[in-house]
Amino acid sequence: MNYERKVDSMDSLAGTESFYEADDNRRKRMLTIAAVALIAVILLGVWYAFAHSKGADTAAGGAGGAGGAGAQNVPNVTVVIPGRVSVQAAIAANGTIAARREMPVGIAGEGGQVVRVLVEPGQWVGAGQTLAVIDRAVQSQQAASLAASIKVAQADADLAQAELERAQALVGRGFISKADMDRKRATRDAANARVRVSQAQYQEALARNGRLNIVAPAAGLVLTRQVEPGQVVGAGSGVLFRMARGGEMEMLAQLAEADLQRVKVGTRATITPVGTNLQIAGQVWQVSPIVNMDTRQGTARIAVPYSAALRPGGFADARLVSGTEQAPLLPESAVQSGPDGNFVLVVGADDKIERKLVKVGTVTDGGVSIASGLTGNEKVVVLAGAFLNPGDKVKPVVQKSSQ
Fold it and tell me: Which residue ranges run through the membrane (predicted)?
């Protein structure tokens, strides 16, 4: 019985030792986890401190502009200092084409039924050339009647003359009195007068018949035709043909009030009809003395020679050369456009991009002249303007101006 109690005591002691060993293992695991967590926190703090210090060094390097990573990222930009050169002062305008001297042609005589129309629009005609033929059947018979009356009157005049001559032969013999001689002279003179009246009436009929046909008042180009065979025309028919005298054309260029002051008679111009690449030389021959109060524009009339591309009523662009002026000249790639108008990018004193609004002047083969907005001493970005923004820092590389 004592043996059993001894065995139970031994078992109880063994269980106690196992319990303490398990508790010790748990404490070790917890200490290990705590140590790992502490090491992770220390590493995270070191990484944060290092990253913050590197960012501060980068910002300082960008502000100093030397030796930092920011200085290495500053791009090189090609710029040009244009200066001021002599360029032609040109004015751009647009307007419509018209005949310089338009000739409306209508009925000059009494009119009648149109028998034939001999011309078409676009055809050249000479002075006095028949454009349309009017029926003259009745008028021709009237002229024939008047021609016959001339012969009747001439026969009466011949008879009166013969009687007068016979009477003069009998005067010396006393067979004819002086009063009879006066009557015979009066009869002869009246007969001659009737001949002249008949001739005048006949010539009048011929003149009227000649005016029946519609003829060109001068040489030129037929622009429009408003008559067809069979149509009855008269004095109230209006314009039947329109012609451009000599084929001369003009452009009615609409100019702003300020530009109108710069244009004089004789100013050279280049006309480009819409839809073509033609450049037709012209010259201003008249400048409007008034300005439209609604549009604040005036008209400069530019004379141009005939060209098949010039159609009255059509639209055209004009470039008027009004002299020379001193202005900066830039490559076309340097000038950009935006909602506010044309602008260029320049490099300021601190090597930062600035945007300047400009007014474009003459566009030539050498570049684009700047009417206003630049003095000519700026460093203007030539290329890559679309990839730069105001405030960007760059390294300008100056190239020589093409002028």
Answer: 30-50
Residues 6 or more apart whose Cβ sits within 8 Å of residue 99 = 223, 242, 243, 244, 245, 248, 249, 250, 312
Of 84, 80, 74, nearest to 347 by C-alpha is: 80
pLDDT class of 58 with cuts at 50, 70, 90: very low
Residues 222 and 129 in one domain: yes
Strand segments, DSSP code E, in 328-392 are 329-330, 336-338, 341-347, 353-357, 359-364, 367-372, 379-381
Same domain, yes or no: 110 and 230: yes
Structural domain contains residue 64: no
H/E stretch holding 179: helix 178-210
Residues 126 and 162 in one domain: no
Q: How far apart are CA 260 and CA 291, in angstroms?
A: 9
The answer to whether the beta carbons of residues 353 and 392 sit under 8 Å apart is yes
How far from each other are the two terminal CA atoms of the chain, in whole angstroms? 128
The sign of the CA dihedral 54, 60, 63, 65 is negative
For the stretch 343-363, pLDDT in tens is: 989 998 888 888 889 888 777
Count Cβ atoms below 10 Å from residue 167 Cβ, excluding itself.
17
Q: Which domain holds residue 240?
A: 106-134+213-244
How many Å is the Cα radius of gyration of the chain?
Answer: 53
Q: Please, which pLDDT band fits residue 22 given cuts at 50, 70 and 90?
A: low
Q: What's the longest Cα–Cα distance across the chain?
A: 226
